[in-house]
Write a structure and sequence with these properties.
12% strand, 487 residues, 22 helices, 5-stranded parallel beta sheet, alpha/beta
């Protein structure tokens, strides 16, 4: 008999439910599926004899779901829905004619346990979302698998992770690629592009088109905190260089006289303090990607040094004699207007064109606020194991975030540390604390003398905290004169 298990994405309880079902049906095929895609997945599952749905809500398109279930019944396929949730109100009651409904317990895993009369004590940490020393590797593997699905469209990793849980496989029985996936997630899991807005969809589309062209240099521009390094990492990990090094370097982090050594490395004794031979960034990134952040901070002399290696693909260690050839994809990023810097003679035109074969502009968060729902809720779910309330998300959207996504995460972390649930209050306090960071734009001085005097008197009055006597003394005029211009 050919069996299929479909489970929901993301929650450990769903994965535990599917693992328990696998213990009952060890040769069954298993896939993760979203509520939205469930009808589509069922429509193509006519080759199976039995299908179990666990950890999948039926709150998708009712008409499409009914059509798929009717098709399966006509083919003689038995479909069972095991859930801890009641049937959604929008689903017609006649669905029970095409679906075996089993609702029980307080968790998806508990429902599967009651359906098959199985024990699941070893899975309880996954059901509760509270890892133990023994189960923490499974949590990491599931999180890594979800990260791979969201970012690289790898659907197989999730099912493989659940099979390891079903068989109680310790991590030394995982494949090397699975262990590497966990290491990758632990290092880069906090760098993820999240959101369904048109701006984010366009950005992801550009990344997917650019990434395969492994020699094309990319210049990423945008305000601080928009996620430029995250984009660089996505380009690397979706390129043929993904198994090679990704080296990130902030060009503003070292003094200009040390940049050549950092770029190319140095021989022992090349300068005072060079006690050993060291590889530079280009050699460390050989075969992979070198990400140069804040490229606009490079002094002109360092720009010339960088240009030479980009043109020739080779360099010499500081203090060395032999040329070293490297194969590096360069991605640069800046929050400055490089074209304007070229015009002003502060950035080399030839280097600008070398760096910007392809350009990506990062939109500020205020231009795609619809993504705040997913960005903030995903962060909160990871930190607190619970979703944000609608009023909390609405409060988060009532702020423009001059520091972009980085500022949003900072705000959420503060809420988590302080256990603050009133986000409107949180943002009001945040605005007050950061008010001095906002640029102060003075109104333009009027042309006529009378209006200019009134504006000046008002500024001095505010400067002295609306104290009439101090204002008059500062202006060296009578109090009545100040009153006249304030009217």
């Amino acid at each position: 008999m050919k069996r299929l298990i479909l489970t929901g994405w993301g929650w450990e309880d769903y994965a535990a439910a599917a693992a328990l079902a696998l213990r009952k049906n060890p040769v069954a095929q298993l896939f993760g599926v979203s509520t939205r895609r469930l009808p589509e997945k069922l429509a193509t599952a006519t080759d199976y004899d039995e299908i179990l749905l666990c950890g999948v809500n039926l709150a998708g398109d009712p008409a499409a779901l009914m059509k798929s279930l009717q098709k399966l019944k006509a083919k003689g396929v038995s479909v069972t829905w095991a859930s801890c949730l009641p049937l959604p109100d929008e689903v017609p009651s006649e669905i029970s004619d095409y679906l075996n409904i089993f609702v029980a317990s307080d968790s998806a895993t508990g429902a599967v346990a009651e359906l098959y009369h199985l024990e699941y004590n070893d899975l309880l940490p996954l059901v509760s979302g509270k890892p133990t020393a023994e189960t923490r590797p499974y949590f990491q593997l599931l999180e890594a698998a979800m990260y791979a699905y969201r970012n690289y469209q790898d659907e197989a990793a999730y099912g493989n992770a659940i099979r390891h849980i079903a068989k109680c496989d310790p991590d030394f029985r995982w494949s090397e690629s699975e262990r590497q996936l966990v290491r990758h997630y632990l290092r880069y899991g906090n760098r993820e592009l999240v959101g369904h807005s048109a701006a984010t969809a366009d950005l992801l589309g550009r990344i997917n088109r650019i990434a395969p062209h492994e020699h094309a240099r990319v210049l990423i521009s945008g305000e601080s905190g928009t996620g430029k390094e995250t984009v660089a990492l996505q380009i690397h990990n979706k390129s043929p260089r993904k198994n090679e090094p990704f080296i990130a370097f902030n060009c503003a982090s070292v003094t200009p006289n040390l940049l050549e050594s950092r770029f190319f490395g140095h021989q022992k004794g090349a300068f005072t303090g060079a006690d050993e031979t060291r590889q530079g960034l280009f050699k460390q990134a050989d075969g992979g990607t070198l990400f140069l952040d804040e490229i606009g901070e490079l002094p002109l002399e360092a720009q010339g040094i960088l240009l030479r290696v980009l043109e020739e693909g080779r360099f010499t260690l500081l203090g060395g004699k032999e040329e070293i050839e490297v194969n590096v994809r360069l991605i640069a990023a800046t929050n400055r207007d490089l074209a304007a810097m070229v015009r002003d003679g502060k950035f080399r035109k030839d280097l600008f064109y070398r760096l910007s074969v392809v350009q990506i502009h990062m939109p500020p968060l205020r231009e795609h606020k619809s993504d705040i729902d997913q960005i903030a809720d995903g962060y909160w779910l990871k930190q607190r194991r619970t979703h944000l309330a609608p009023e909390q998300i609405e409060a988060l959207k009532n702020y423009d975030y001059p520091g972009n996504v980085r500022e949003l995460f900072n705000l959420l972390e503060r809420a988590s540390v302080l256990e603050e649930t009133d986000f409107a209050k949180l943002i009001a306090e945040h605005k007050q604390m950061t008010a001095s960071l906002a640029p102060q734009v003075a109104p333009e001085l009027p042309d006529d003398l009378e209006s200019a005097i009134r504006l000046h008197v008002k500024r001095v009055y505010e400067k002295y905290r609306n104290n009439l006597s101090k204002t008059a003394a500062a202006l060296n005029v009578a109090r009545n004169t100040v009153r006249k211009y304030l009217e």
